[in-house]
From TrEMBL, chain A:
Membrane topology: Multi-pass membrane protein
The UniProt record lists the keyword Transport: yes
Cell compartment(s), UniProt: Cell membrane
Protein name stated in the entry: Peptide ABC transporter permease
Domain ABC transmembrane type-1 per the UniProt entry, residue ranges: 83-272
From TrEMBL, chain B:
InterPro entries tied to this protein: AAA+_ATPase, ABC_Ni/Peptide_Import, ABC_transporter-like_ATP-bd, ABC_transporter-like_CS, Oligopep_ABC_C, P-loop_NTPase
Keyword Transcription annotated: no
Native organism: Litoreibacter roseus
The protein's name in its UniProt record: ABC transporter ATP-binding protein
Protein biosynthesis in keyword set: no
UniProt similarity note: Belongs to the ABC transporter superfamily.
Chief site of localization: membrane
TrEMBL record, chain D:
Organism: Litoreibacter roseus
Phylogenetic placement of the source organism: Bacteria, Pseudomonadati, Pseudomonadota, Alphaproteobacteria, Rhodobacterales
Family: Belongs to the binding-protein-dependent transport system permease family.
Start and end residues of each ABC transmembrane type-1 domain: 96-293
GO molecular function: dipeptide transmembrane transporter activity
Protein name: Glutathione ABC transporter permease
UniProt entry tagged with the keyword Transport: yes
Membrane-traversing stretches: 12-31, 105-124, 136-162, 174-192, 228-254, 274-296
Keyword Secreted attached: no
Domain of life: Bacteria
GO cellular component: plasma membrane
Annotated InterPro entries: BPD_transp_1_N, MetI-like, MetI-like_sf
UniProtKB/TrEMBL annotation, chain E:
InterPro entries for this protein: AAA+_ATPase (IPR003593), ABC_transp_ATP-bind (IPR050319), ABC_transporter-like_ATP-bd (IPR003439), ABC_transporter-like_CS (IPR017871), Oligopep_ABC_C (IPR013563), P-loop_NTPase (IPR027417)
Sequence ranges assigned to domain ABC transporter in this UniProt record: 5-254
Primary location class: membrane
Source taxon at top rank: Bacteria
Record protein name field: ABC transporter domain-containing protein
Pfam families: ABC_tran, oligo_HPY
Provenance organism: Litoreibacter roseus
PANTHER family referenced in this protein's UniProt entry, alphabetically: D,D-DIPEPTIDE TRANSPORT ATP-BINDING PROTEIN DDPF-RELATED, TRANSPORT ATP-BINDING PROTEIN
Locations listed in the record: Cell inner membrane
Record keyword DNA-binding present: no
Biological process, per Gene Ontology: peptide transport; transmembrane transport
């Protein structure tokens, strides 16, 4: 659905977002990051899991450009592979969350009534509950690992997408063109799929984009509690959680993944802001 | 009382208003007509000195009120005038009142600020004015919130605020556009009465030629940020000299004498970003010639009225 | 006059200062309660509340002479009757095993008690010296019931419990009447320090920073990897004591491929204990070759049974077991890869060690996937028999730990190896209940230990040291530390530096 | 008017609370593992187990258990913690004050500082300030809490030695945790305030206020602020639950007790009664937050007062 | 001429959801409206904001379900149709909406918007689709070159033309025009009205024209229905007929002549329009009526069935 929605309109907006200075830098960085994640095996100078205890905690230099960690593993390679974990977990989670949220929200907005109230009550509750707690409860239920992290993040952000989609649908339902299309003799499925959803999608996708940033942070936080990627799979969060002591012994082990998270999230936000601007949907994001 | 000379307004690089002139005296009603985006509200805002709010500035001309040039007035002094000697009535009564506050205090503010009255005195005055505006049970109304009232009622409250400090000039920016015809008629009558009773100078901004015809003494016709014609109302309606004015009058459906056929004006209203050079109306003008595309026309005066058209005299020869 | 102490990570989360019923006690307990006897670092026993004891030759009765003039914090006297009630109170509790061998307690006179034994118990003194055998006031114990150790804790110790916020901090104040310190401390009178505040700091890094910035004065249980950093700090001094525990990797013998003893043996040979000590622990501590700490006589087993790094042999064993090396470095048998699960608990120390183990297993062609659990979930996993390998540690300086971890009665947890074996159980029973003398007990346990080793139920990895760090500018700590652990007796000698 | 409104909102919470309580009750049964196992002595028999199960009422049907539970909750009877072996009420009473102080201060900090920042950035429209604000807001949502906490500790405790590294002692020990939690909140509140003020400034009635001759200051404080407050109050109210429970990370890093830590700990130990009580407290806080938000909004906005009653 | 549309006693009641604390309130947005519309005629509906004009239009097109009454379109009882039948019928009865700015999906190009009726109805046009679209755009006076534009790239007047093109795509016989020029400038309004006049004579369309502008209705329509608070209070058979209902009279007097010489004295201020939720008993206009009597306060006047010029007043002028 997300791919199909990249119609002329959306392409235009992404193009416009990229054409602004900040948008270009942020977007370029994100594209680069995705490429790095995809081609990690080709780019990373070392195997992320190769230990060399004799060369543990080596400072940045050559051949370990960003140094090595407590096991003598190459930090650069781990940051590169970490991009893979962090991005894919967050993106998958958000995609799941978005799909579910859009379905729920669209149904709630379209059908209204008791169904809407029930959905929104539940969803609102998950929203006002601290996301880290939701994640921890979820992890407690299905156990640690990337799957549960993914689902935990997905649940934590479900409400956002549901609310937003519902708000969009409710707003759109009142638009004249919907009534006009009904009056042409269109079936409900046509209304929903050809008009409501495509129009509701833009802000949801942008928020989804922004949420990927939040997802990365949440993944990092779960990693801090040791609940994300299982070793030796690197994830930025898990790497950052090596503890304060590491800040004295080999700060690069913590600093570099931390910087990676910060830059990525900033880039995601900047690009998202630019998209919001070029899609001109600031007002539509506010209502939800 | 109030006279505007060659007013120009700019927002950054765009110049949505230029060369607007008019004047109005006590007991007189001046109508400013023009289509959406022609710069009517900007004119009102310039006179009120409120352009900086939206980031605009006056680039030329003068706004003279009671002998002083307002464009050079410091903000502090200007604030005394606003709401004091010059009142403003805005277009949409639905959104013109602070929805979080009761009616009473919102009106009281004016008298407190400009007449130096204390709370009770100001309230007495508020109720008094609401009464003269034929609002039933003013003291009850004062305790209500805006959302509890009808549009016509709210518009009267806005008028009451404009009147509270006994202004000399009232600027009404489309005061009836959002209202139903029957209510519009009431408000127009009210304004009319006020001009007569209080000897006010009223600037009535509207896009409705019928309203102008009903109430105004003089009118200014605006198009694309310029005044294209001005003069006494009868003269303009009888012998419009600017092709735009002529076309505008032709656009009004007259149900009862069903002879003319409506065709409208070809083409579309230009936006600020593509104001034509020369005469702004030339792309849509049936009489346009080469010169119209290059040279902005001067006002040609005939009697009390003036039209900014290279062919004003010709136009005058064949009224619409 | 106030000293702040941080517990070591393994001591966190004690729920009550109740030596009788609690399953988890911390160091502060040893300051609230005194024990009948104390054990020194050289495993010798020293009198404390019991001034003398005597075992009948057949081992069927023990007579203890009690110290005179000792009172509990609630001013009730400590005497033979108190001991009698106290021993009886273990019935039905988690810690009942400590007094299992005692059939009954006789009050001989006010300051003499006799324990009549079910069977000879050479381990009795060890038990009596354990923290779980601190002596509570019988009056308070009966009075408070479930609340004992929670709202109040009454012992005879040098410090009294002032406040206890679970999971947060415990404040102890000096018992001014205390005059009965054991000979393990210089100071036998009231403690030098007025107040001890014990804090539970879950994050080791935070604890380290607290020590460094003066937030705490004493850190019990410094993770080995912090030693290097701490040593660099001028104001911080470190005491290293022989460890009382082992890090090891249990092998689930019921989960293929580990149902094959050859695979288990090979797994043991994959772990390079020496390099772990050198690289992970910076040379501090010792490699573990078998299940018991090396200071125990039962650790002296037939050297052939000790587990040693031998990757070549491991490879041969695996070949023999039918696991041929695959192209990608992972062994294969019948089309199945040698991939196993490796569980570990959620703490920096464990995950570190586990990752090294994982890498070393990879060397012999075994691909291990790590899952990190919190300590409670991991226990559920063991009970569910969901594990294959795990990295764990225990802290116990007695050979009866073998029974705890390998008895068929406790399969699942704590018998994580899931080992049930007739011969093993027979040897266990002999060692646990049929030794009349200490020497016999050593022999029996050594035999049991050797049998356990021969079955390759686990891989011993590391014997840590006990590391205690303190702010040398604030306090002084007895040197050398006496006793097997840094506890009550050592706190008596802590002094504030001027 | 407001009282009536509050009462109505309260009544409306009843069905919501009921569904929440059911959800909370069920969550616990979704958790793997069994507190009884944690409680049982190693090697104990099936009877021991049955005895414990009966003692904690776990042998009855779920429905019965639910009603017994909710009935007890109503009487403030939170039961006995299974693993921590003390009244759950005590545990809550012990931890809640920490959460409330920390949350309250963080709340105060983020709302005041956030609103001040937001207001300044909305009225002083200066490009440099604008960029600074954007950067700050961005950073606020970017930096994971634990990371920020570590950096703060490093700077203020280790290098400058101003505040303690951890613990729950005097006011000094509150500074860094409050800053950590507050940072994200400040950014959020600043953003909301700013947007709301800019929106309010664009409203028609503001033009009329200027036309009345009121000074910009009067307009800002008397008229615009109330409008900006509306969304800020909503956001803040919704975050009450967040602040009470969401401080887990901060509590962990700074070694502070609190509702969040208690919950996490109980979750780890499968201490059902504690988990349930904590979740219920949080849900209560969340609902209370929504209620406060609604009532605050209604007391500020007559339109809401009327529409919803 | 046969009647294309017969509306009988059409009513719509809206109920605001009640709660435990508030009684459900209901209002008649449209109350007992009846009229006939002959093929090729234009009937105008005037009335103030909120009097139920749009609701009436929606009821006739069955975009909302009526609470009572009947609508016959070309002899078919619309209310008896199944949803599928109704969808097919819609091709023959189209509507042009008040707000052109939101009448086209912002993500659709004009071509796609104009082609949508064919897609929705599953009709293949005679000509290739692009030609068909170009033809329709030309018919409403738009340059077919605009086909690839998006709505936000064209002006309000142009959007309204697109709306008309869409409505005409399936060759309907009835066109309901709900204030099609209300949000447009006068010069553009005149363009659109001109266009509608042309289309009517070219295509033989029948119009139901809704407006609040009496002069526009008088200019454009053959007959006029005057609505007040949900009811038809007067049905003028032709535009020259003198008003007989006091409300119609008020309405006419409130409409100014675009001629400064024909200024009129505006009647003094009168009472407020009552809330539709609690109408007074009797005639709804009673509080603002100069001729009101006791009868007016107690009994709702029925629309007289008098042929030609019906009026709902106890005291018609
Ligand atoms: N803040 C602004 N920045 C840039 N351009 C502006 C701004 N405000 C108004 N304009 C432009 O100035 C022109 C005149 O606007 P103005 O509001 O005066 O029109 P108007 O005649 O009052 O129209 P309407 O009848 O729709 O109220 C418009 O084209 C508008 O785009
Ligand atoms: N879906 C709805 N639910 C409840 N009330 C409605 C609904 N639609 C319309 N109304 C009410 O019905 C009455 C008539 O509305 P309608 O839109 O038909 O008026 P109108 O004459 O078209 O007004 P306008 O000139 O403003 O378009 C109004 O009071 C309106 O509030
Ligand atoms: Mg305007
Ligand atoms: Mg309408």
């Amino acid at each position: 659905m997300a791919i199909r929605s990249l119609d002329a309109f959306a392409r235009m907006s992404i193009g416009r977002a990229l054409s602004s200075g900040i948008g270009m830098v942020a977007g370029g960085f994100l594209i680069l990051l995705v490429l790095v994640a995809v081609f990690a095996p080709l780019i990373a100078p070392f195997d992320y899991a190769d230990q060399n205890l004799m060369n543990a905690n080596a400072a940045p230099g050559w051949p370990h450009v960003l140094g090595t960690d407590e096991f003598g593993r190459d930090v650069l390679s781990r940051v590169i592979y970490g991009a893979r974990t962090s991005l894919s977990v967050s993106a998958t989670a958000i995609a799941i969350s978005m799909a579910a949220g859009m379905t729920l929200g669209a149904a709630a907005g379209y059908f209204g009534g008791f169904f809407e109230r029930a959905v929104m009550t539940v969803v609102d509750l998950t929203w006002s509950f601290p996301d880290i707690l939701i994640a921890l409860i979820f992890v407690a239920i299905i156990g640690p690992g990337l799957t549960s992290t993914t689902f935990a993040i997905a649940i934590a952000y479900l409400a956002q997408f549901t609310r937003l989609t519902r708000a969009q649908i409710v707003r759109l339902k009142r638009e004249t063109f919907i009534e006009a299309t009904i009056n042409l003799g269109a079936k409900p499925s046509h209304i929903l799929l050809k008009h409501l959803m495509p129009n509701a999608m833009a802000p949801v996708i942008v928020v989804g984009m922004l949420a990927i940033g939040d997802g990365i942070v949440l993944e990092a936080t779960l990693g801090f509690f040791g609940l994300g990627a299982q070793p030796p799979t690197p994830s930025w969060g898990a790497m950052m959680s090596s503890g304060t002591a590491q800040l004295f012994l080999s700060p690069w082990v913590i600093i570099f993944p931390g910087v990676a998270v910060a830059i990525t999230v900033i880039a995601v936000n900047l690009f998202g802001d630019e998209l919001i601007r070029s899609l001109d949907i600031r007002d539509r994001l506010r209502g939800a | 009382m109030l006279s505007v000379r060659d007013l120009g307004v700019a927002f950054g690089m765009v110049q949505p208003l230029s060369g607007v002139s008019f004047s109005v005296n006590k007991g007189e009603t001046l109508g400013i007509v023009g289509e959406s985006g022609s710069g009517k509200s900007l004119t009102a805002m310039s006179v009120m000195g409120l352009l900086p709010l939206s980031g605009g500035r006056i680039t030329g001309g003068s706004v003279e009120f009671d002998g002083q040039d307002l464009t050079k007035l410091p903000e502090r002094a200007y604030r005394k005038l606003r709401g004091g000697r010059i009142g403003l009535i805005t277009q949409n009564p639905m959104t013109s009142l602070d929805p979080l506050q009761k009616i009473g205090p919102q009106v009281d503010d004016v008298a407190k600020l400009h007449l130096g009255l204390d709370g009770a005195e100001a309230r007495a005055r508020t109720e008094d004015i609401l009464g003269t505006l034929r609002i039933p049970e003013p003291s009850l109304i004062c305790e209500r919130y805006p959302h509890q009232m009808s549009g016509g009622m709210k518009q009267r409250i806005v008028i009451a605020m404009a009147l509270a400090a006994d202004p000399d000039v009232l600027i009404a920016d489309e005061p009836t556009t959002a209202l139903d015809v029957t209510v519009q008629a009431q408000i127009i009558r009210l304004l009319d009465d006020l001009v007569k009773e209080r000897d006010l100078a009223l600037v009535l901004i509207t896009h409705d030629m019928s309203v102008v015809a009903q109430t105004c003494d003089k009118i200014v016709v605006m198009y694309a940020g310029r005044a294209v014609e001005h003069g006494p109302v009868e003269e303009i309606f009888d012998r419009p000299r600017h092709p735009y004015t002529q076309a505008l009058i032709a656009c009004i459906p007259r149900g009862l004498d069903d002879a003319t056929r409506l065709t409208g004006i070809e083409g579309t209203v230009p936006t600020v970003l593509n104001y034509p050079k020369g005469c702004p109306f030339h792309p849509r003008c049936p009489r346009a010639e080469a010169i119209c595309a290059t040279d902005p026309p001067e006002f040609s005066v005939a009697g009390d009225s003036a039209a900014a058209c290279h062919f004003a005299e010709v136009a005058n020869a064949q009224p619409a | 006059q106030d000293v702040t102490v941080a517990f070591s990570a393994s001591e966190l989360g004690a729920t009550a200062y109740n030596p009788v019923a609690a399953s988890n006690l911390n160091t502060a307990t040893s300051l609230i309660y005194d024990r009948l006897v104390e054990q020194d670092a050289d495993q010798s026993y020293h009198p404390h509340l019991a001034t003398a004891w005597e075992e009948t030759p057949d081992g069927m009765a023990w007579t203890f002479t009690l110290l005179d003039g000792v009172t509990f914090h609630d001013d009730t006297p400590f005497n033979a009757a108190a001991v009698q009630t106290w021993i009886a109170s273990y019935a039905g509790t988690e810690n009942e095993y400590l007094v299992e061998a005692i059939a009954s307690v006789d009050v001989v006179d006010d300051l003499t008690v006799r324990f009549n034994m079910e069977r000879p118990e050479p381990n009795l003194l060890y038990n009596l010296a354990s923290a779980f055998m601190g002596v509570p006031s019988p009056t308070a114990y009966a009075e408070l019931g479930e609340d004992f150790g929670v709202t109040a804790a009454v012992g005879t110790g040098p410090y009294e419990l002032q406040s206890f916020e679970i999971g947060l901090e415990t404040v102890l104040v000096r018992n001014e009447d205390y005059t009965w310190g054991s000979d393990l401390s210089e100071n036998t009178g009231p403690g030098h320090i007025e107040t001890f505040t014990f804090r539970e700091i879950p994050d080791q890094s935070t604890a380290f920073l607290e020590l460094r910035t003066g937030g705490i004065d004493l850190l019990l249980g410094v993770p080995t990897d912090f030693l290097a950093i701490l040593e660099a700090e001028a104001n911080i001094q470190i005491i290293q004591m022989p460890g009382t525990g082992i890090s090891y990797m249990p092998i689930n013998v019921t989960a293929p491929p580990f149902d094959d003893i050859l695979v288990r043996q090979a797994t043991g040979m994959a772990i390079d204990q020496d390099s772990i000590v050198a690289a992970v622990y910076g040379g501090v501590g010792a490699p573990a070759r078998n299940f018991l700490i090396s200071s125990l006589p039962e650790a002296n087993v037939n050297p052939d049974l000790n587990v040693r790094y031998d990757p070549a042999k491991a490879g041969e064993l695996l070949d023999e077991a039918g696991w041929a090396m695959g192209d990608d470095g992972v062994r294969v048998k019948d089309g199945k890869q040698l991939s196993v699960d490796l569980f570990t608990a959620n703490s920096t120390e464990f995950t570190r060690l586990t990752q090294v183990v994982q890498a070393q297993l990879a060397e012999i062609g075994m691909e291990a996937t790590i899952t990190v659990f919190d300590s409670s979930t991991i226990r559920d996993e063991y009970r569910r028999n969901a594990h294959q390998l795990a990295v764990r540690a225990y802290d116990w300086n007695n050979s009866d730990i073998l029974d705890w971890f390998f008895s068929g009665n406790r399969v699942g947890y704590p018998n994580v190896s899931m080992w049930e074996d007739e011969e093993g159980q027979r040897l266990n029973d002999i060692a646990m209940t049929e030794s009349a003398t200490a020497a016999e007990r050593v022999a029996n346990f050594t035999a049991y230990h050797e049998y356990v080793l021969s079955q390759h139920l686990f891989v011993p990895i590391y014997q840590p040291t006990q590391n205690i760090a303190f702010n040398g500018e604030a306090i002084s700590v007895p040197d050398p530390v006496r006793g097997s652990r840094f506890r009550g007796q050592s706190f008596m000698d802590i002094q504030v530096t001027e | 008017m407001i009282l009536r409104y509050t009462f109505q909102r309260l009544l409306m919470l009843i069905p919501v609370s009921f569904s929440i309580s059911v959800v909370i009750f069920m969550i616990v049964y979704l958790l793997p593992g069994d507190p009884i196992d944690n409680l049982l002595r190693v090697g104990s028999s099936a009877e021991d187990r049955a005895e414990l199960v009966a003692r904690y009422g776990l042998d009855r049907s779920l429905v019965v258990q639910y009603f017994v539970w909710i009935g007890n909750m109503f009487q403030g009877e939170f039961g006995q913690a299974i693993v921590l072996r003390r009244p759950v009420a005590d545990l809550i009473a012990q931890n809640l004050p920490y959460s409330l102080t920390l949350g309250g201060l963080a709340f105060l900090f983020s709302s005041t500082v956030g609103m001040a920042l937001g207001t300044v950035s909305a009225i002083v429209r200066h490009p440099v300030l604008d960029r600074f604000m954007r950067g700050f807001i961005l950073l606020g949502s970017t930096v994971p809490g634990f990371w920020l906490a570590l950096l703060l500790i490093l700077l203020f405790s280790v290098n400058l030695g101003w505040f303690p590294v951890s613990g729950a002692g005097g006011w000094q020990s509150l500074v860094l945790p409050v800053l950590t939690i507050g940072f994200g909140g400040v950014a959020l509140v600043a953003r909301v305030t700013r947007v709301a003020l800019l929106d309010a400034q664009r409203e028609d009635f503001v033009t009329l206020l200027h036309a009345k001759g009121l000074s910009s200051g009067t307009i800002l404080f008397r008229h615009l602020m109330p409008h900006a407050l509306l969304p800020v109050v909503t956001i803040l109210a919704l975050r009450i639950g967040w602040i009470l429970g969401g401080a887990v990370t901060v509590e962990f890093v700074f070694g502070r007790p609190g509702l969040g830590s208690l919950l996490i700990r109980a979750l780890g130990q499968r201490d059902y009664p504690v988990v349930q009580a904590c979740l219920l407290m949080l849900a209560l806080a969340v609902m209370l937050g929504t209620l406060i938000g609604d009532v605050a909004q209604a007391s500020m906005d007559p339109r809401i007062r009327e529409k919803k009653s | 001429m046969p009647n294309l549309l017969e509306v009988r006693d059409l009513s719509k009641r809206f109920t605001s959801a009640g709660s435990a604390f508030r009684k459900a309130r209901s209002m008649h947005a449209v109350n007992g409206v009846s009229f006939d519309l002959a093929k090729g005629r234009v009937i105008g509906v005037v009335g103030e904001s909120g009097c139920g004009k749009s609701t009436l239009a929606r009821l006739i097109l069955r975009l909302i379900e009526p609470s009572g009454g009947a609508v016959h379109f070309d002899g078919d009882d619309l209310l008896a149709k199944s949803p599928a039948q109704m969808r097919r019928l819609r091709a023959r009865m189209q509507m042009v909406f008040q707000d052109p700015y939101s009448a086209i999906d912002p993500r659709y190009t004009l071509a796609r918007a104009v082609a949508e009726p064919f897609e929705v109805q599953g009709v293949t046009p005679e000509k290739p689709m692009t030609d068909e679209v170009a033809g329709l755009l030309e018919m409403v006076g738009l340059n077919p070159g605009l086909a690839t534009s998006y709505p936000h790239q064209i002006s309000g007047g142009q959007k309204q033309r697109v709306g008309i093109a869409r409505a005409l795509a399936l060759r309907p016989s009835l066109l309901v025009l709900d204030e099609p020029t209300a949000s447009l400038d006068v010069s553009v309004q005149a363009q659109i009205i001109g266009l509608l006049e042309d289309l009517r004579s070219d295509l033989g369309l029948t119009y139901l024209f809704i407006s609040h502008d009496l002069s526009l209705v008088k200019y454009f329509c053959d007959e006029i229905l005057v609505m007040y608070l949900g009811r038809v209070v007067e049905a003028l058979p032709d535009t020259a007929a003198p008003a007989r209902h006091p409300y119609t009279r008020t309405l006419m007097e409130s409409t100014f002549e675009p001629d400064p010489k024909k200024r009129r004295l505006i009647a003094p201020l009168e009472g407020e329009v009552p809330s539709p939720f609690d109408l007074p008993p009797g005639c709804a206009f009673v509080d603002r009526c100069p001729n009101a009597s006791a009868l007016c306060r107690s009994e709702t006047p029925a629309l007289s069935t008098e042929t030609g010029h019906a009026v709902a007043c106890h005291h018609p002028i």
